[in-house]
Amino acid sequence: MSRSTSPAGRPSVVIVGAGPRGTGLIERIAANAPELYGDTPLDLHLVDPHPPGGGRIWRAGQSPLLWMNSTAEDVTMFTDESVEQDGPVRPGPSLAEWARAVRDGEIPVAPGPAEALASLGPRDFAGRQLQGAYLSWVYERSVAALPPAVTVHEHRRRAVRVSGSHDGRQQVHLAGRPAPLTADLVVLTLGHLEAELKPDERELTDFAARHGLTYLPPAFTADSELSALRPGEPVLVRGFGLAFVDLMVLLTEGRGGTYTTGADGQPVYRPSGCEPVLHVGSRRGVPYHSKIGYEPDGERPPLPRFFGPEQVDALLARPDGFDFRRDVWPLIDKELGFAHYHRLFTAHPGRTRMNWPDFEEKYAVADPGSAALQALVGAAVPDPADRLDLEALDHPLDGVRYPDAEALQDGLRGYIEADLARRHDPAHSPDLAVFLALLSVYGQLVRIGDRGPWWHGFFSYLASGPPGPRLRQLLALSRAGVIRFLGAGTTVTADARRGVFRAESASVPGESVEARALVEARLPAATVEHTRDALLRALYADGAATTPTGLLAVAPADGRILDRAGRPLVLGPARTGSGPHHPRLFALGPHTDARSGGAFARPRTNAPAFRQNDATARALLTFLRDRAAPPAPRPAASLARPAPTPEDSHAPDQ
Length: 654
Prior knowledge:
- The structure is a single chain.
- 33% of the residues lie in helices and 14% in strands.
- By secondary structure, the protein is of the alpha/beta class.
- It has 3 domains: 12-194 and 527-653, FAD/NAD(P)-binding domain, CATH 3.50.50; 199-288 and 467-520, FAD/NAD(P)-binding domain (3-Layer(bba) Sandwich); 309-395 and 422-463, no CATH class.
- α1 packs parallel to α4 (128-144) and α8 runs antiparallel to α13 (430-445).
- The longest helix is centred in the middle third of the chain and has 24 residues, at 324-347.
């Protein structure tokens, strides 16, 4: 029987965060251990108040109405031949393949929602509960793949602090547990963070309290207290991304509303009478672009072309650094344009006036945004609808004005209908090429570090939008009057004279909407200094470095947490001395400047998260192999995994 803390001399790693990122790291430890670590004993402590695999975001205890925004065939937790890594590839099923194998009896699991599993096809969007069941299976498989001498301990608690010396073992303190866990190495695989309120959010909270209003600050929507939003009342909503889509679902279908199919084949919403009226706006004033609804075919653009390892090396080698918008964005602009036009010329040559080799040669030497490039595109691509204009994509309502709110509703419905039609029509397959280029760019940007909030928002807007069916539901809700559009450049003010929140937008000058409820439909900013996570706050106080936008600074090579001098962070009195700085603290995930777009990924896309997991796993195992004291031999009987009981191997420490 194993213990909750590692015996003296027995190597130990504490992983804080049991969601998909922690699961992916365990999968890579299992894959690399035979080469780097052999059959030496090792304790892996997994710390998270939520069950491992799905963690908080993908937990079973959430509404079955909430979906993923990726198709089942585009979700995997396993490496493949595309992943640039030093460790071995350990293939495994995508979500779609897993669901089929479970249905066929090839994988014996209790997967959760049986009806959703039975009907899930490769191009369907799974519910989050079902994705959580897949992640739980991946976790169990990864644990089973560990060498027999590796023992996993689950602790269903929160980690609140790490302490230790600069050259010794660390102590990880857990809430409600007197004795800390002892670790040679600590890895933070935290997901989305909760944050303290910003000054403007505190002001709105105080205003709401003084006037008897409702204000819901940024949060993971499934955790928000939505019962305060009363039936029939107007609710202002800031944010038009995926958090809004969840809000829309929970306040409509989640309150008993239903959809039927109209004569035109489109959904028609039947209200229950329990819904509020959502007035939604944002900076752009439009929802994220629909997921593309057709299969890729034909030749793919050869990526990377203008933004690859060579260009990133050159940026990182600049002695005076670089600016994202000035130095990086032009390269991204050119990369996305190359993908777009490659697809247009090779798949739809009838819509061009030049052969591809000639266009490519001239495109390669033209500067992004230059008059020469615009002239080239104008001469070679006659239809403006076939030209890529990233600025117009990012600001679709700039300069568009509507005479009144009703005209805005008609205009926005027309915009969404056009987006749905385009994103489901392979005649516009250059859009898919741009999507693939965005994934390629994101993979390169991981090496650069903090890119600021604009890039992540732009990427999500173009590449990580909602499923098409969700936007069709949005249209139905708009026609039913349950959702009202506010427009672009939405601003909300606290009207002290009338004791309400007031929203205005640039799209309908002179008009405003007032309400007694305001919802911020977005996730909190992942800043370390202002997170509610006690462990990260303590590390920041102990000298962990952050980027200008507040992300935790880590070494690009393996995820080591860095101090403010750019060295691996160490704890204890010698932190600022000249002694050895051993890499004992690591971090992976969206709270770091190596954020990679997601803990799982599309198959065969050289996913950054998989590369990072592999590099960190190899760094951990190499450190333990080279530095850990030889452990005492274990009794032969202890190699068998005992039945799960509290404090036992692979059992939760409640």
